[in-house]
Amino acid sequence: MGQLRGAIVPVTPFQQNCTILWDDGSARGVVVDPGGEVDRILDAVRQAGVTIERIWLTHGHLDHAGGAADLRDALNNVPIEGPDQRDEFLLQNLEAQGRAYGFTMRDVAPDRWLAEGDTLSLGEHSFDVLHCPGHTPGHVVFVDRAARLALVGDVLFQGSVGRTDFPYGDHAALIDAITGKLLPLGDDMRFLCGHGPGSTIGTERRTNPFLRCAGSE
Ligand SMILES: [Zn+2]
User: Fold this and answer.
1) Cβ atoms of residues 91 and 108 within 8 Å
2) Residue 1: predicted pLDDT
3) From ligand 1's centre to the CA of 95, what distance in Å?
4) What's the gap in Å between 135 CA and the centre of ligand 1?
5) In Å, how far are 61, 97, 136, 165, 217 from 202, measured between CA atoms?
6) Where are the alpha helices (DSSP H) in 153-217?
7) Burial class (CB in 10 A: 0-12, 13-18, 19+), 8
8) Ligand 1 mean position to 155 CA, how many Å?
9) What does the pLDDT look like over 15-26, one tens digit per residue?
10) Could you read off the pLDDT of 76-130 as tens digits, one per residue?
11) Cα of 154 to ligand 1 centre, how many Å?
12) Residue 170 above 80 pLDDT?
């Protein structure tokens, strides 16, 4: 089995970590959360020398999904997978949302909605889909248990957790998802997140101030 490789391209003024993930044996990969600046993402794909087979979306916010329609067009209609359908209202409102920030972006309809328990494949690697609502209702997380790598979007950050100050945000649900689904992945599980540096589940279990009251101790 080839090694899993990754490259992060921060996109949009929100510096969202668009992530290119690939299997170095087959040089086939996916782009996760192409929020915008599609030309820069395509440059990074060319530099990595990989063939992109899928676009994966963790949730429907514009800095994660705003470039998905244009990237799909540029990549010969590769399928867009995710998020959970509960984020459809966000994906259908990207153009209007973007306009409010002065961005040009398009609404997007994924080719496949994801649900808790689904599995995604990248070459010989397989990623479990976890539904982790709270930041948005349909947020999903991708977990490669064998490679010990998770892509958690805007659910959990180094030293912080996702914002829930949106009309549809739910802080209690977010903390439930982190404690019920992410902490059990194990302390050695590394994760990449939507903004800033990644971390490990163990580091966050021990030091994240938002999880102080939520852990086992
Ligand atoms: Zn978000």
Assistant:
1) yes
2) 72
3) 16
4) 7
5) 27, 36, 24, 26, 14
6) 171-177, 201-207
7) middle
8) 8
9) 999 999 999 999
10) 999 999 999 999 999 999 999 999 999 999 999 999 999 999 999 998 899 999 9
11) 5
12) yes
